[in-house]
Structures are given as C-alpha cells and as structure tokens.
Amino acid sequence: MGEKRQGHHHTVSVTVNEPLSTKKKHSVILNLASDRRVLAIWIVIVFFVGKWIYDHLDDEQQMRRKEVLVGMCEQRARMLQDQFIVSVNHVHALAILVSTFHYYKNPSAIDQETFAGYTARTAFERPLLSGVAYAQRILNSEREEFEKRAGWTIRTMEKEPSPIRDEYAPVIFSQETVSYIESLDMMSGEEDRENILRARATGKAVLTSPFRLLNSHHLGVVLTFPVYNSKLPLNPTVQDRIDATVGYLGGAFDVESLVENLLGQLSGNHEITVNVYDTTNSSDPLIMYGQQSQERHMSLKHVSKLDFGDPFRKHEMICGYLHKAPTSWSALTTSFFVFVIGILVGYMSYGAAIHIKKVEDDFHAMEGLKVRAEAADVAKSQFLATVSHEIRTPMNGILGMLQLLLDTELSSTQKDYAQTAQACGEALITLINEVLDRAKIEAGKLELEAVPFDLRSILDDVLSLFSEKSRRKGVELAVFVSDKVPEIVVGDPGRFRQVITNLVGNSVKFTDQGHIFVQVHLAAQAKTIIDAKSESCLNGESQSCIRQFNNLSGKQAADDRSSWETFKHLDEEFVNDNASQSVNLMVCVEDTGIGIPKHAQERVFTPFMQADSSTSRNYGGTGIGLSISQCLVGLMGGQMDFISLPQIGSTFWFTVEFGRCEKSAVMNVKKSLLDDLPTTYNGLKAVVVDGKPVRAAVTRFHLKRLGIQAEAVSSIRTAVAVFAKYSSLITKNEKLPDIVFVEKDSWISSEEDGSMQLSNWRQNGHSYRLPKLILLATNITAAESEKAKAAGFADTVFMKPLRASMVAACLQQVLGIDQKNQHGRDVPNRSTGKCGLLCGKKMLVVDDNIVNRRVAAGALKKFGADVQCVESGQEALKWLQIPHDFSACFMDIQMPEMDGYVFKTLLELFPRFIVHRTHSGCLQKIMFLRKQFSLGLVWLEIEVDEMRVWM
Fold this sequence. Notes:
Layout: H1 2-33, H2 36-103, H3 112-121, E1 129-136, E2 138-139, H4 143-150, E3 167-168, E4 171-174, H5 190-202, E5 206-207, E6 211-212, E7 219-228, H6 238-244, E8 245-254, H7 255-262, H8 264-268, E9 272-278, E10 286-289, H9 292-296, E11 300-306, E12 315-321, H10 329-358, H11 360-406, H12 412-443, E13 451-454, H13 455-473, E14 476-481, E15 488-491, H14 493-510, E16 515-522, H15 523-539, H16 564-570, E17 582-591, H17 613-619, H18 625-635, E18 640-645, E19 649-660, H19 663-671, E20 685-689, H20 693-705, E21 709-713, H21 716-728, E22 739-743, H22 744-753, H23 758-762, E23 772-777, H24 782-790, E24 798-799, H25 804-815, H26 819-835, E25 842-846, H27 850-862, E26 866-870, H28 873-879, E27 888-892, H29 900-909, E28 925-929, E29 941-944, E30 947-950
Parallel strand pairs: 14-16, 20-21, 20-22, 22-23, 23-24, 25-26, 25-27, 27-28
Antiparallel strand pairs: 1-4, 1-8, 2-3, 5-7, 6-7, 7-8, 9-10, 9-12, 11-12, 13-15, 15-19, 16-17, 17-19, 18-19, 29-30
Helix pairs in contact: 1-11, 2-10, 11-12, 11-27, 12-13, 12-18, 13-14, 14-18
C-alpha cells in the first residue's frame, strides 16, 4: 500500500511541474497578441484571405457559367449532327434507288420528270437539303453520242461548253429547286472533281468545302454519293469501285439556313453566339455560319466537334458569351463578411490579450488550485479503492462466519436471524459494487459467471431482505415460480439476484398499500398466453377482458397479467423443449405503488435520473439501480421493459436466458439445500382457505416445495365441505388433512358475517386427530392474535412474505417436530454426502487475511479434512516441497509479494514441486479461493483418488 501511495505522489509532482514548463510559452503568446504590429499584420492577412475567398467563389461561379455553356453547346451540336446524318442517309437511299431503277431496269424506270416528281414529294424527308441531282459519268469517247441523245451540250459551272477531259459528270436528273444545274459538269471545278473522285474510290459520302450556293447568298456544302451499275464484291478494291461507277448523286446543304433553324433558340439569346467552321485546313478555317468578328469578343467560349460523315472533312462549333460575367455579389458579400469577422476577431483577441495580462496573477493562482484539486482527485480515487477493498475484506469474514454459524444447530428463530443477517451482508456487498458495476459496464469489462444455482432460493433470499419493511407497511409481498421452470439453471446468480433486488426494492420503496408480486415463467409460455388474451380482447371474444382486480391483493394494477384470468392459464400444461441447451425465462415484478409520471417514463433507465426532485427527497436513492439492471439483463441475453400508470402502480418485466444444467450437477446442487428445505414434511396434506385464487396459488407453491399436498378453497364454508368429504372416506384409508392454512382476510370475513365458526366444524363426533389450524397474515395486532388463539389457531402465526425455509421452520414449531431428531435423520445423509468427503485428506489454505483463512479452514474441516493455513505464497512453497502429503491447495489470487498466478507458474516450472496426479498422496490440484467464500452457494470441484467430489 505504501508503494502505491508513493507512486501517486510522484505523479502529482510531475503534474505540478508541467505548468511551469508551459508558463514561458503562455507569456510569449500573450505578448504577441497584445502587440499592435501583430494586429496590423493580422489585418493584412485577413484582407488577403478575403480576397482569396472572393477569387475562389468567383471562379466557382465562372465554372458553373461555363458548365451551362458547355451543356447548351454540346446539345445543339448533337442536334445539328444528328439532323445532318439523317439527311445523308436519305441521300444515300436515293442513290441506291437510282442505281436500282435506272440501271438494273431495262428500259430505265426513271427519267427527269419521274425524278423531279419523286424528289419533290419526298422533300419533307430532307428538310436540310435545298435540292438533289444526279450526274451521269460520261467518258470523253461517249460525249458526242451523249450530247446528241440528250439534246444539249455539257457545260461548266460558268455555263460555258466544257473543255475536253477524260470524263465528265453532267447533271441529267435534278429536283425542281435546282433545275438550273441541268447539263452542268460537276467535275468542271477542281475541288468538285477531287470530291467526286474521292467519293467513287471510297464508296462513302463526301462533302465539299463551304461555298456560295448558286442563285443564293448563303454558304453551303455539297454532299456526293457514287452510284454503281452492278453489285460490288464483298471486299471491293478501288479499281472495282471505279469500274462500277456510272454516276454521282449529290445534294446541296444550305448551312446557314440549317443552323438558323436548329439553333435559333440559342442564337436568339443575345448573351450567347454560335459559329460553325470547316477546320479541314486548321491553319485557315472556313466559317460556315456566324461572324468571325464575334469570336474575338467572346468572354467565354466552348468548342464542340462535329462529325458529318466525311472523315476527310473536319467541322466544329464554337459557342460563347458575348458579354462578361456579371459581378458575383455572393462572393463579394462573403469575402466582405469574412474580412469584417477577421477584423473583429483580431481586435477581440487583442483586447482579450491585454485583459489576460492584467489578470495574469489570478490565473496563476487558479492554476495552483487546479493542481491541488487534481492531487485531491487522485487521493480520492486511491481512497475509494482502498476503502472498497477494506470493506470487502471484513464483509467476507462476516459472511463466511455466518455460513459456518448456520451449519451449527440453531433454533428456528436463530436460524432465521442468521439467514437474514447473511442476506443483508450480501446485499451490502452488492450495494458497494453498484457504482463499480456501472463503470465496468460502460467500459465493457463486466464478465458474467456460468454456474448452477437454484433460482427459487435466490428469490426467497431477496424477499427476506424486504420482509420486515413490507410487513410494517401492510403490503402483500409474494413470489411465484412456475413448475415449468427448471429447479436448477446455469448462469450468474449474483447478477440475477442484483436485478431482482433492485426491482423489488423499488417496488417496496414506492408502494404503501396493495401488493408486490414477483413471477417467473417460461418466456415462450407467458408470451403465448398474454398475446392470445390480448387478441381475444381486441376481438371481443372474452368476458375476462373487463378490468377485474382479481389479483394478489384485489387492488388495481398497471397490467392485468397477474390477474387470475391470466394467471390460471400460466399454470396449465405447456410443451417445453427440454432438448434445448438454454432456458428463456420471463420475470415480472408488479406493484400497486405510486407509478411513474408519463413525462418521466422515457428517462427511467437513464443513470442517476429519477421521476422528479420530490422523488429523491421523499424516497431517497441514486437513480442508478434500474440503469444497471437493464444493462445486466442485456448482458444475460434479455430485454427489460415496463408499464406504469400514475397512482395505480408499475409492472416491470424482463427476459433472461440461462443454460440448462446437467443432471449430475442438478443432483449435487440439490444436496446443498437439504438443510434449508427438510424432507420431513413429505406426504402431509393441507387445505388453504383463501378467497383470492392468486394468493392461494402462491401459498400452494411454497407448500409444494416442502412436499406438502395442498388443496385451495375459497371460504371456510367450502373447507367444512372438504372435511366432510374426507370424514366420509376415513374407512377407505383416505387420510384427513394434517394442516389448515387460513388467510387472515377469510377468517375475519367469516367471523363478521357469522356464517361459520371454526369450533363448529372441528367438533364432528369422530375420534380421529384434528388438523392444525394455522393463520396466514401480512400483519397482525396483539388483539387479533389473542382472538385467533381463542378460535383454535396455533400460537405461531405465519407472517408473510412466505418463504420455503421460513414455512419449514414455523411448521417445525407448530407440529412439534424435535429439531434434534430432525437433524439426526439428516446426519446419515450428510455424513455420507459431505462430512466423510475429505476424511483423511490434508489441505493447504493460503491467504493473507486471517479471517478468510479461518472461514476456509472451517469450511474444509466440516468435510473432515485436516487443514494447514499459511499467510503467504513463499511460505506455501516451503510446505509443498517434496515430500509432502497435501491433497489440494486453496489460494487467494490477489496476494502481496506473490499472487496466485505466479505461485502456480512456479509449481509448474520447478521439478521439486509436483502438481500432477500421483499415487503417493502428493498435491493433486491447486484451487484459487474466491472472495465471499460461501459453502451454501459455491461448490468447488476437487479430484481426489480418481474420483470427482463436489463440495
């Protein structure tokens, strides 16, 4: 302990020195912040930051503006390109039509009139073309014959007779809109000739460069398709195409009209202009639409590529804004506000620095107080840890000695006092650990045990804690566990007890009249019955849905799941899956207390929160119990919820998942309860007189645990009828009930109405032994007690809450069973099961606390062992050097100088210590003692002479 304290003081000294190392830095910062030159520099920095923000926001606006322009330009470019391609396809189709009907048909099916009429009627399919025409390929050798047949001379574009060439391409068919080009040689122009030759060599559409259309001032281009007189091979060569060419079909595109029609909406916007270029010659692009001078004035522009189907020609569309972008007011105002805020921050920092320098002395004084407070906090934490440990140590001794005391021969009153003291001690340990539990839960370091335990015994222990307080208040406190719930389950009994204690404690605290009822059922069974009852209520199929307070005390409760209409179904047969490795239980704690206000129900499970301030003043408490309980239930695989009505009561319930215990473990745990629940009452018969069926079922539950067969009746009149039935069956070897338990309410009501006196049905003229009359009461006055004795009741009144151990002790007094004889009957079993268990075996107990050594030694001696106690691990090593005759060693894990883990490691590493099984009586097993060493609750497993023994 001294070493720990010294270490903490060292930590505090380091903490004190840390502010000294930062004092100079703090002074430097203050001096800089209070300097006017630093303030001026700050203003300059803020100015540039504001300008950067303005530039950044303005750039973002420009980007958005450009994105809009790009979207509009790309959209119009796609529209122009798609319309152009459609027109190209129609021209191609017309070329195929000419090839089919002019050359494949003999005689030809097409002449000028037919061609002109057809192209006029189908002009709507080519809205972008000003006209189409067909030019026939004529070789120079064929010119004279062709001119005679046509009746006109081949002319150039200037309408002059065409000079002599290798071949010509005069127009023979034309649309009416371009009839003026008839007889013109399409190959008379140098560029036109190159385009025609390229078209027939490639077999694809070919475009010319922009030019002024004839009889028009608009710019346009001519599209040319070759026409073949025969089908070409699959992969024709250039020469194959030239040989098969018989003419050329061309169409004139009015580009300006085309763009005007398609892009009128865009060009109509005065802020945006559009230009279309032929960029085949990148050094000298030819404008096809728009004015080139406008491009120089564009503040922002975007170029979109156009593909008109001719790979040789390149076209592009340039869109742009004519005017500059307007001033970005959002960027301007934002940067201005940033600048103003920066100035204010700088000025405020400057003023704050001056103010801080003025109060610097006070600041240092506060730093000193802070250091002292931290030291006090460290001391407080160390104090809490020390006190917690120091409180646990004597409490462990108290609980251990109480356990040893309970193993001695005690009267029923002494035994009840000792058991209550033991339960209170365990509750005190629980209260000490509550805050530590909450910290462990939040840190995720809380671990649950998995040991076999008797759930019913734990509930009895919890009720014993609150029995006196409930009696003083006149509140009915009871517990009921369904027969379907296994007697022994595997889980953490301490945490389960903690949850039940919290819930019952809250109910007792907030309930001044009525009842507190704890129920345990199989979760699946309870859910099925409650859901079925709720569904029948919604459908109007059950009369029991009408709120009747036929429950434990007859007072209205927040939930009717404990009413007799529901309760009686929970006790019916239910198919349970015994093959499952887990047991899901539903635990319900119902009270008729003050309830929880509606506005406070949402924060019920919030740590350190209560309904309101008056709750804390009137009832006390920290408000952490329910929060811890909910967390523990979640760790045990369940959920917790509640229903509460103000001034009526609250019902808390939770589900929990336990493991199913093996049969061997069940038998061993049952053996530990033989002293608490004697078997001398097996076969006794009893009658329970109680007008409330739920309360009668609770009484039968406790009697059944003692082996007593109990029958419940609603009144004394009915009980008389039962005795009359048994009296008539005496000759048939039917046994008369041995005990009659009468609820105080039923006795008082029968006395008031005078319907039946107990003496009337006790005297029936027969010589057989009369049953014992026992009164059950939550509280009773001296006058009522005397009156009950005069009415024939036993001197001992069974005070509620009922517990199996308390009922057994009271029956012992009422029935006159000799305690010594009872123990005498149990001694053979006990010696057979326990006292001879370790006879002849020598045990070593290692613990640094003398009280814990005495508790462990007393527990082991009870089983017949020879015990040697030592106070340190080093001393234990001396005793365990070969040769030795110890069968087992019990050691505390947390030990000074050498803890249990180091001790076990040393035994395994060094050959002079034997830890494995031998046949020479050497040490066979090391066991580590747990704090709160309790024989009645904890069973330690030891292997001795190849036999498993349960203690």
